[in-house]
Design a protein that fits this description.
Layout lengths: L2 E7 L4 E3 L19 H10 L8 E3 L5 E6 L14
Antiparallel strand pairs: 1-4, 2-3
């Protein structure tokens, strides 16, 4: 089993999924990831089902440790002003 240990995270770091679309008439906000398409594509790229939840960062990233598995992960994206 692989565990993801959160060492630190910036403000507005959240766990997101595809949301709860279609329930607004019951008072439930849709919520979910800011970019549902990017969430689905990222999941497929790493071998997960498209609707698997993910960590969403806003502004600052975080520090995480994966325990129980050996792999390399490199993420790089340009800063958005």
């Amino acid at each position: 089993m692989t565990d993801l240990v959160v060492k630190s995270c910036g403000p507005m770091t959240t766990l997101q999924d595809r949301g709860r679309l279609g329930y607004q008439r019951f008072g439930v906000s849709p919520s979910g990831a800011m970019d549902r398409r990017a969430l689905a594509m990222a999941n497929v790229l790493v071998g997960n089902p498209p609707d698997t939840g993910a960590i969403e960062f806003m502004n600052l990233g975080g520090a995480f440790t994966a325990e129980g598995a050996t792999f390399a992960l490199h993420l790089r994206a340009p800063a958005v002003p």
